[in-house]
Write a structure and sequence with these properties.
Blueprint: E1 2-6, E2 9-12, E3 17-24, E4 31-38, E5 45-51, E6 57-59, E7 67-72, E8 77-82, E9 91-99, E10 109-110, E11 114-119
Parallel strand pairs: 2-11
Antiparallel strand pairs: 1-3, 3-8, 4-5, 4-9, 5-6, 7-8, 9-10, 9-11
Amino acid sequence: VQLVESGGGLVQAGGSLRLSCAASGFTSDDFAIAWFRQAPGKEREGVSCISNSDGRTYYADSVKGRFTISSDNAKNTVYLQMNSLNTEDTAVYYCSAGLGNCWPTPEDYWGQGTQVTVSS
């Protein structure tokens, strides 16, 4: 399984970004993809997750109402739309994947990460 993230960058506070995670190599439809982030000096934080089998989505409290996770099965890509960004959202964002659903969070496979920087 391979995961490739894209879409990070520099944005002003209040702005938006959309991250993409292109997945390949799954031989089953029963898998989930999650987004994590890690800011300098902080622990890795689970941000959101989507289950491919039933489409259920989950969000960390810190991003509820601002971030939206979605999937395009035809493109085998999961998106993370991030709105109303603030400086605390600055981090390296990683997508991860694994068989099953979002509990526990899928962490069998990881992408390389993409930097998101929010300026004040």
